[in-house]
Amino acid sequence: MPSQKSSGVAAVLSALINGLGQIYNGQILKGIIIILIQMVNGALTFVLVGYIFLPIVWIYAVIDAYRSAEKINARNYRRYGR
């Protein structure tokens, strides 16, 4: 049976470093893309545009990591039971 993912751990990891929660959930490409987007947003703070998009992507990454872990666990529960 595949391992359960802690939705809390996924959310905290993504809150610390955006994209890390997605990588923890096994969504490697999605996590790398989010990390790259946040790097660009960080660079764009020099022209003030990044201050708008940085928190939006941060919130998205945390919520997505949490929900993805919940979906993975639900799928594993339906497939394999406990």
From TrEMBL:
**Keywords of the record:** Membrane, Transmembrane, Transmembrane helix
Which domain of life does the UniProt lineage start with? Answer: Bacteria
Q: Where are the transmembrane segments?
A: 31-63
Give the protein name, as stated in the record: TM2 domain-containing protein
What is the originating organism of this protein?
Salinicoccus cyprini
